[in-house]
Amino acid sequence: MALRRSPAGPTPAGSLEPVADDHLWTAEELEKLTPHDRQRLLDERVVTDLSSLAPDLVERIRQRGRNLMEQRGTASRTIEGG
Fold it and tell me: How many distinct structural domains can be found in the chain?
């Protein structure tokens, strides 16, 4: 689950909160939904604005990307800044 900075300030557990709600959808629940509603649920949980994520999470993602690029021999390309 991705985390974002809390817009209301620090939470009891720190300054991060889950991006999506805490409901864990079961396969049975999802199968009862229409394809449109399943897609809507997925679309609501996709994060497209990196500034809404914790900076340390973004850095870990970027570092993982750099490591994978090195392993695959594509290290000459860059992923910095987006």
Answer: 1
